[in-house]
Design brief:
mainly alpha
Amino acid sequence: MSEGYDPSEDGAKMSFAKDMSYVDYLSLDPILGVQNCQSDAHDEMLFIIQHQTSELWMRLVLHELSSARVALEQGKFPPAFKMLTRVARIFEQLNGAWDVLRTMTPSEYTQFRNALGSSSGFQSHQYRLIEFILGNRNRAMMKVHEHRTDLHDMLEQELNRASLYHVALDKLATEVGVTFDPNVFRMDQPHQVDDAIMAAWATVYQNPEAHWTLYELAEKLVDLEDYFRRWRFNHVTTVERIIGFKRGSGGTSGVKYLRKMLEVELFPELWSVRGML
C-alpha cells in the first residue's frame, strides 16, 4: 500500500510562522468572521453570503469602471475595452449568484426576514455608485445615505465628475466632428436620449471601418448594459419568486419598483440607433 502524499517532498512551503500565508494575504479571518446571522434560521447564512459576495464583486466593478473612465479620458482605448469587458463578465458572475439564492423558498425566507429590520439592497451605496458612474444619476437616491456622511460624500463626489458615458460622448463628438448641447451632460439627473447624439452614433455604425475605435467602444458599452439588464431582470424574478408582491424590507414597493427599473436605459442612443440603420 502506497504512503500518503507529502507535499513538502514536492517543494511546497509548509511553515508560515514568519511568512505571509494564503489566509494572511486574503485577510480571510475578518472576511469569514462577519457572517453575523441574526436568527437561528438555516438559510440566513445563504442570504448573507449572497449579498456580501455581491458587494465584493461590485467593489471590483467600481475599480474597473473608474479605471476605464480614466483610460478613456486619456485616449487609451484598448485598456478601457478590456476593463469594460471584465465588468460585463462580472455581471455574468452576479447573474449566476441569483440561481443560488433562488434555492431558498418563501417559507425559508420568512423564518428570518424580520431579523433584517429595515435593511435592504436598495441601500447599497456601491450599487448606487455604479449607476452614477454609468450615467443613471438621481440626487434623490442619496437621501438614504445621509446618516453616513462618508458614503454621502462619496456619492456627491461622483456627481461632480463626468460619467463614463459623458466621457464616451466627448470622444464621439471629437471623432465625428460635432458639438453636443451642454445640457446633454446632466450631472445629477438621469441621461436623456438626444437626437444629435443618436445621429453621431449612426455615423459610426454606418461606416464602422472609418470609425472602428468608436464602433468598438459602442459595442463594449452595449455588451456591458446587456449583462447589467440581465442582472436586474434576474433580481426581479428572484424577489417575486421568494416574496411575491410584498413590500421590500426597506420600504420600497418590491417587485413593482424593480420592474420599473427594468425600463431604465443607461446608454439609450446606442439602443435606439439600431432602428435607424
